[in-house]
Design goal:
By secondary structure, this protein is of the alpha+beta class. About 25% of the residues lie in helices and about 30% in strands. The protein contains five helices and eleven strands. A five-stranded mixed β-sheet has the order 2-1-11-5-6. A four-stranded antiparallel β-sheet has the order 3-4-8-9. A hairpin with a 4-residue loop joins strand 5 and strand 6. The longest helix is centred in the first third of the chain and has 18 residues. It is globular, with a radius of gyration of 15 Å.
């Protein structure tokens, strides 16, 4: 039930944004670190939406301190909520293909963005993430607030070195 309500809220928010004539998505001023394409309504680069770090940091998000299988001890991550990025581009699909710089890709249900406080971490321990330390972006599930997510199912969706999200109907 919670998942259905959350999805309806995302859909209604997107519809409202389109109805009230939301401003166009601005072009990135800095280096592009994320491209979103597919079933989206807000674009700033042909058929895609591009984001630089400043654009991502301006979106609603969270800071989290948590343990992951890929880092040592408790690590701080911060970045925008995945759902905030999807709302910003007017995503209308039900699935996401999240692709890394090395072309590794994972399919993630949109419900993971709606139901959980997943973030696209852009900073780790207060510093911008680099390719060397799993950046520029890393999909982080809220393992700190929902220990049930700490398992292989969500580990396999936790893509790092993210370059692109494709929204699929």
């Amino acid at each position: 039930m919670k998942s259905t309500i959350a999805r309806l809220t995302l859909a209604l928010g997107t519809a409202l944004m389109l109805t009230v004539g939301a401003s166009a998505l601005e072009r990135p001023a800095g280096d592009v670190v994320l491209t979103v394409r597919g079933a989206i309504t807000q674009k700033n680069a042909g058929e895609a939406a591009e984001f630089d770090p400043a654009m991502l940091r301006a979106l609603p998000g969270r800071d989290a301190k948590l343990q992951t299988p890929w880092t040592e001890g408790e690590t701080g991550f911060s970045g925008p909520y995945l759902r905030a990025v999807l709302e910003e581009v007017g995503a209308t699909g039900s699935r996401l293909i999240i692709r890394a710089l090395n072309d590794y890709a994972a399919e993630v249900p949109v419900g993971d963005a709606v139901d959980f406080d997943t973030i696209l971490a852009i900073d780790m321990n207060g510093e911008p993430m680099t390719v060397r330390n799993k950046g520029p972006l890393f999909l982080i599930y809220p393992f700190d607030t929902n220990p049930d997510l700490y398992n292989e199912k969500y580990f396999s969706r936790s893509v790092w070195q993210i370059k692109e999200i494709v929204v699929v109907e």
